[in-house]
């Protein structure tokens, strides 16, 4: 008799687990569909030159914490220049990185894009702070991009010794994409002509 109650309880518990999991998956899928519809709605707003409405929808999606649609929405905000305040864009970058789970390389891409964006208006120490995680990671494909960004940053400031150092580091990376190699070499050639 005791075994029957235990077996019955176990079966009820397992059924409850299966139903709960199914309900969770269904809601998760429903939320993803809703986010995709909202994303399309924002794109329609943009096509109709309704930037304020598009921005609001896209920000809502960013704050939904769905790694795919939050990122897509954020990049659409950036590509369409919907936010002019660099501090607000920076806060959105931070929010996206802190509140979503990304694969390492996607996270590194976001860190690179954040540093690239900030390179237009921050000083040297802030830029180095932003890009430090990429410089210290020999396993990321974004390290070469980060080194080129710093090389270009210093080149634009006419700090050619620092620029040369970063371009040279790019050339030391194994299995480098040809475009990156050419970019570093062409900048080094320009520095040599100075």
Overview of the structural elements:
It is a single chain. By secondary structure, this protein is mainly alpha-helical. The chain contains nine helices and no strands. The chain has helices at residues 2-47, 51-62, 67-79, 86-99, 104-118, 124-135, 143-156, 160-171, 178-193. The longest helix is centred in the first third of the chain and has 46 residues, at 2-47. The chain is elongated. The relative contact order is 0.06. The mean pLDDT is 92.
Average predicted local confidence, pLDDT: 92
| Molecular shape | elongated
How many DSSP H or I helices?
9
- Beta-strand fraction estimate: under 5%
Percent helix, as a range, is over 70%
Q: Can you count the beta strands? A: 0
Write the layout of secondary structure elements.
Layout: H1 2-47, H2 51-62, H3 67-79, H4 86-99, H5 104-118, H6 124-135, H7 143-156, H8 160-171, H9 178-193
């Amino acid at each position: 008799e005791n075994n029957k109650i235990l077996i019955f309880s176990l079966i009820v518990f397992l059924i409850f687990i299966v139903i709960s999991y199914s309900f969770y998956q269904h809601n998760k899928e429903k939320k993803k569909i809703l986010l995709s519809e909202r994303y399309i709605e924002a794109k329609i707003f943009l096509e109709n030159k309704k930037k304020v409405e598009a921005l609001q929808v896209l920000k809502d999606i960013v704050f939904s914490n769905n790694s795919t649609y939050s990122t897509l929405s954020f990049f659409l905000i950036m590509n369409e220049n919907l936010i002019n305040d660099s501090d607000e864009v920076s806060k959105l970058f931070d929010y996206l990185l802190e509140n979503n789970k990304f694969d390492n390389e996607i996270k590194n891409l976001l860190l690179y894009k954040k540093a690239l964006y900030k390179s237009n208006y921050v000083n040297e120490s802030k830029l180095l702070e932003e890009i430090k995680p990429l410089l210290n990671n020999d396993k990321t494909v974004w390290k070469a991009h980060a080194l080129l960004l710093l090389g270009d940053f210093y080149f634009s400031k006419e700090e050619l010794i620092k620029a040369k150092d970063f371009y040279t580091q790019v050339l030391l990376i194994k299995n480098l994409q040809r475009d990156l190699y050419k970019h570093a070499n062409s900048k080094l050639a320009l520095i040599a002509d100075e």
